[in-house]
Amino acid sequence: MASAGQLHMLYTCPFCWKVRGLLEHLDIPHERVQVNPMRQRKTLPSAPEWTKVPVWVDAEEKIHIDSTPIMKQIDAEHNEGKLWAADDEERRDKWMDWVDLHLSKATIPILYGSLGSALKTTTRVSKLEKFGFISKRLYAWAGFPIMWGIIARKRVKKDGRTPKKLWHDLLTEFTNEFNGKQFFGGDSPNLIDLAAFGYVRSISPYPQFSQIKDHESGMKWYKAVESTLKV
């Protein structure tokens, strides 16, 4: 089967996990191009105008940027826009914004919210991503104090909750919106489910994922979405 496009990505990027989940849910054949995190400005097909992942290059070689617009474009082109369609568009738009604002920002505190967590995360990232020989070691040992001390610690302090409490509160708020259904989208996941799933899934390669696993309704939903993927 011919490839529908190329996903230029980082393995550990939450925004890339969003797009990957959609592609796997729709069972769309595609090529994954894992880029060097230190060379995105030189290697991404969208650079220098856009230097972030994910970047989607479709079968006609058109370049699409930014994870949520990419998801909408893929859904429209390959699925007649069924996952984005909604009877209540105001509710849909509100919760897509909520997912992209709150869940995306919560990934940093849980992965880098303590010095020990930050070290585990940067070490894991250095093994998963396509770094060069020197940059791999530099990121593993120099990256964690930066991510913890400059970014994550400030977010945790400003929020006032532990990363686990933050995630449990967010998952409770999200799953309470299902109105008794299995998914936000009702009886089957929609684009909001898949976007939220991508953020949660991006934590799964790390030991910190154990802090989320005991959230009953969140994990029930997560596993239900996971079961729809063709991997």
- What is CATH's topology name of the largest domain? Glutathione S-transferase Yfyf (Class Pi), Chain A, domain 2
Which CATH architecture of the largest domain is right? Answer: Up-down Bundle
Radius of gyration: 18 Å
Largest sheet: 4 strands, mixed
Cα end-to-end separation? 16 Å
Percentage of residues in helical conformation: 55-70%
One letter per element, helices H and strands E, the order comes to EHEHEEHHHHHHH
Structure commentary:
This protein is α+β, with helices and mostly antiparallel strands. The protein has two domains: 5-79, 3-Layer(aba) Sandwich (Glutaredoxin); 89-226, Glutathione S-transferase Yfyf (Class Pi), Chain A, domain 2. 56% of the residues lie in helices and 7% in strands. It is built from nine helices and four strands, in the order E-H-E-H-E-E-H-H-H-H-H-H-H. It has a four-stranded mixed beta sheet with strand order 2-1-3-4, covered by helices on one side. Strand 1 (5-9), helix 1 and strand 2 (31-34) form a beta-alpha-beta unit. Helix 4 (89-112) crosses helix 6 (133-159) and helix 4 (89-112) runs parallel beside helix 8 (191-201). 39% of the residues are buried. Mean pLDDT is 89; it is low at 140-145.
List the helices and strands and how they pair.
Layout: E1 5-9, H1 14-25, E2 31-34, H2 40-43, E3 55-58, E4 63-65, H3 67-79, H4 89-112, H5 115-128, H6 133-159, H7 163-175, H8 191-201, H9 216-226
Parallel strand pairs: 1-2
Antiparallel strand pairs: 1-3, 3-4
Helix pairs in contact: 1-3, 1-8, 4-6, 4-7, 4-8, 5-6
